[in-house]
Amino acid sequence: MTTKDQGASGLSGLDELMYEPDGAGDEPRDPGRRRSGRRIGLIVAAVVLVIVLGVPAAYVGWAVTAPLAPPVASSQAPDFTPATAAAITLSPEGSSALSVIGGAAYLGPDGLSATSGSDEARPIASISKLITALVVLDAKPLAGPDDPGPTITFDKADHDLYDQYYVQGATVAAMPTGSFMTERDALATMLIPSASNYADAVSTWAFGSPGAFVSAARRWLTAQGLTATTIVEPTGISRRNTSTPADVMTIGKLAAANPTIAKLAATPTLSLPIFGTLSNTNDLLGRSGVTGLKTGNLGEGSYNLLYTATVDVGIGEPLSVTGVILGGSSRQSVDATVLAQLDSIRAGFHSVSLATAGQVVGSYATAWGASAELVVADSASILTWSDTAITMTMDVSDPADYRDGEVVGSITWTAGSQTATAPLEVRGSIEQPTQWWRLTHPGELGG
Question: What pLDDT is recorded for position 6?
C-alpha cells in the first residue's frame, strides 16, 4: 500500500477553500483582491442608495418652492348706451329764434342758438313797447328798478288817447285828466297790461312830441345796430312797426339787461289807484321758468312773443334763455311752442349711466384653476348735453395680493369738459395651489 506525504504534496482544508477548481485552467484567487472588490461593491451600493433617496427629496424641495406664473389677466371696456341728440322744439309757424346762454362747460362759451322760418321783417305789435321803454329810459333814466322817478301829470290830450286807442281795439288803461303818476308806474302800465295810451303819453312826455320820439327811436336803433327794425309810432298798433327775429332777439337781451324793464316785465299784476288791478298780458309768466318779456298781437296770424326764461338743468347754474316767435297763428299755439321748447332744452341735458357697482370688466385666471374678477367698485354716470361724445380710459395695475376688494386701478369717462371716475377692484381671492398640484405639474412651474 502506497501512501502520500501530505506534508509535501497534499492540500490542507484551507487550501481547498482557496482553490476552487471550476474547470481546466482555473487559477487560484488572491484573497486580498477579493476583499478590495467587496469594499467597492459596498461603496457603489451606497451611492445608488443616495441617488435613489436624494433625487426625490431635491425635486420635492424645488417643486414646493418654485415660483409660479402670475395669473393671466383680461379686461374689456364696459358698455353703455350713448346719449341721444337733443331735438330742440322750434316754431312750426311764422319764424323764430332762440338763444341759450350759460352752462359753458356743456354748451361752449357761445351757448346754443337756433332759428326757424325766414329772417324777414314782420309786424312786431306791442313788442314795440319794449323799444319805447328803452328809448324813454335812455332819455329819462331811473336810478334803479324801484326808483319812482319824476311825476307825470296827464292833461286833456292824454285823456283823449284812451278813446283814440280804444276804438282801434288796442289795450288801454284809465288816464283821467289831471291825474298823475310816477315815470316808473307809467312804464309799468305800458308794459304789464300793455296799455297803448300810456305808451303814447309817456313817449310824448319824454321827447315833447310823437315825431320827436320817433326820431329818437330811430337814432337809438341805429346806435344798437338794429338796422332791420322799423319804428313809426310807440305802441305797435301800426303794422309798419316791423323787425326780424334776429333783431328782436337783440332787443330782448337789451331789455332783460335793464333792471327796471326786467323787473316790470316779470310782474304778474299791477295795482294802482287810478284803475285798480291789471294783469300781465304774458300768461306764461312763472310757468316753466318764464320770467318775461313782452307779447305783441295784431290778430290771427300775427301773434308774437318775446320771452326770457331761467332754466335749471342740474348743472349748478341755471341757463338764461331768450326766445322769440313772430307770426304765430294764435296765442295758444305760441304758448304751447314756447313750453315745448323749454322742455326740449331740459331734455337735452341727460344723465348717461356708464357703469354699475359690481359690473365685471375683466378676469384673472391661473394654471391651477383659481380665478377672480375685475369689477367696477362704484356706479358711475355723467351729465352731458345732447349727443356729446363720451370717451373712456382704463388704468389698471397688477394686483399685489389678488385679494377680494383690492383696488387695482380706475376707469374714467370724459364728455366735453366733464369727467366721471370709478375705482376698479378685485372680486374674489386667488389662493395658492396645493403642494400636490405643484408636485404633479412640474411643467407649469417656473425657475
Answer: 40
d(CA 322, CA 252) in angstroms, rounded, equals 7
Residue 37: what pLDDT? 61
Q: Is 254 helix (H, G, I), strand (E, B) or coil?
A: helix
Dihedrals phi, psi of 361, to nearest 5 degrees: -125, 5
Which CB contacts under 8 angstroms, 24+ apart, belong to 295-298? 295/125, 295/126, 295/127, 295/194, 295/331, 296/124, 296/125, 296/126, 296/127, 296/128, 296/236, 297/125, 297/126, 297/331, 298/123, 298/125, 298/236, 298/237, 298/239
Mean pLDDT by 10-residue block, N- to C-terminus, for the chain (447 residues)? Answer: 39 39 49 60 52 69 87 90 92 96 91 94 97 98 96 95 95 95 97 97 97 98 98 97 98 97 97 93 96 93 95 92 96 96 95 95 94 96 93 94 96 93 96 90 78
Q: Name the percent of the chain in helix, strand, coil, to the closest 5.
A: 35, 25, 40
What is residue 116's DSSP assignment? Answer: E
For residue 45, being part of any structural domain is answered with yes
Look up the CATH number of the domain holding residue 150: 3.40.710.10
CB 386 within 8 A of CB 344: no
Residue 297, H or E segment: strand 290-297
Nine-digit cell string for 54: 436624494
Q: How far apart are CA 431 and CA 370, in angstroms?
A: 7
Report if residue 333 sits inside a domain: no
Q: Can you give the CATH number for the domain in which 429 is found?
A: 2.60.410.10
Does the residue 344 lie in any domain? Answer: no
Nearest-angstrom CA–CA distance, 46 and 435: 30
Integer CA distances (angstroms), 172 to 148, 185, 255, 300, 380, in order: 22, 15, 22, 20, 58
CB within 8 Å of 195: residues ≥ 6 apart: 171, 172, 173, 189, 278
pLDDT at 375: 97
**Does residue 133 sit in the same domain as residue 177?**
yes
Q: How far is CA 330 from the centre of its chain?
A: 37
Q: What distance, in Å, lies between the first and last C-alpha atoms of the chain? A: 88
Residue 78 three-state SS = coil
**Peptide linkage before 293 cis (omega within 30 of 0):** yes
The whole domain housing 285 covers 95-328
Instruction: Please tell me the pTM assigned to this model.
Output: 0.78
Q: Going by DSSP bridges, is the β-strand pair 407-415/418-427 parallel, antiparallel, or unpaired?
A: antiparallel
Count of alpha carbons within 13 angstroms of residue 88, beta-carbon side: 18
Instruction: List Cβ neighbours of 298 (8 Å cut-off, separation of 6 or more).
Output: 123, 125, 236, 237, 239
